[in-house]
C-alpha cells in the first residue's frame, strides 16, 4: 500500500471526454454555451481529436452538465439521480468505521434511491468485487455512449474510496461491459491496472485487506472536498509504485535536460538502460512516450497560463530550437503551437 504522491505539474486529458459530455448535454437540450464557457473552451477546440484539456477544464464541463441537466447521472439512466445525492451519501460515509462499512452502506443507499444504479459487493478468494450496474435508459435515440457514465462512476467510486481512507487502493482489475474504446490509452491514468473489456459486468477488483482500513476523513475535510468536486476525480492520482511511476517522478523533478535522458534516469534507478527499457515494456510503457507525455502536458499548461512566448515554452520543456519544438508539438496535438494558441 502506497502513500500519496503529488506531481509537480498537471497532466492533461483527451478532448474526447469534453466532446462527449458536451454532445450529451446538447442532446438533452442543455445550453452548451453555458457548459463550455466555464472551461474557456469552444466547439472548435474540443472537436480536435488530438486536443488535450486540463483537469480543471473537464471538471468545469462536468459540473455545468450536472447543473444544466439536473442529473448527477447525466440523463443516461431511466430515472434521474437528483443533484446533491452524492453529497448526501458522502456525509453518511464519513461516519462509517471502515472501508468495508463504506461499501455496504453505499450499496444500500443506491437501492433506496431507486433503480438508477445497482451496486453489489462480493468477496472471492481474498479479493473484493465491486459490481456497478447502471440502469441505462432505453428511450434515448442519440449515440451518446453508455461508457461515458460507466467510466465516471468507476472513477468516482475508486478515487473517493481511496480518499476516505487516505490511502490509494491498488486495483487488481477493472472490468467494463463496453468494447475497447478509441481513447483506451487514457485508462492507464484512470485505472492503473489490467482492464477487461466486453465483460459481463462493470467491476472494480482489489485485495480484501483494504476492507479493514479505517475511514479517517471528517466533516471539515469533506466540506472542502465537495466544494472542489469533481476536480479531485480528474487530477492525477497516486498509482502503484511501478517503474513507469518512478520514471515520471524523476522526469518531473529534473533540474536540467541532462537529467531527463534515459541513461541518467536509469542510473538514478541503479540499473542499466536495457533493464529499464525492459521493465517499462513489461508495464506497457516506453521511456520516450513517458517523456513526451510529460513535455506535452507541461507545454499545454504553460500555454494555458498565457504569459510565455512559444519559444520560451519550448525552452521550458527542453527544446532549444523552436522548429524542433513546433514539430514535436504538432505531433502531440495535431496542430502547431501558434494554431493551438490562437484557438484559445
TrEMBL record:
Keyword Transcription regulation appears in the UniProt entry: yes
InterPro entries: AraC-type_N, Homeodomain-like_sf, HTH_AraC, Tscrpt_reg_AraC-type_HTH
UniProt KW keywords: DNA-binding, Transcription, Transcription regulation
Entry GO CC: cytosol
Stretches assigned to the HTH araC/xylS-type domain: 245-343
Gene3D superfamilies from the UniProt entry: Homeodomain-like
Keyword Cell cycle: no
Signal peptide start-end: none
Pfam entry (one): Arabinose_bd
Gene Ontology MF terms: DNA-binding transcription factor activity; transcription cis-regulatory region binding
Name the record gives this protein: AraC family transcriptional regulator
Species: Brumicola blandensis
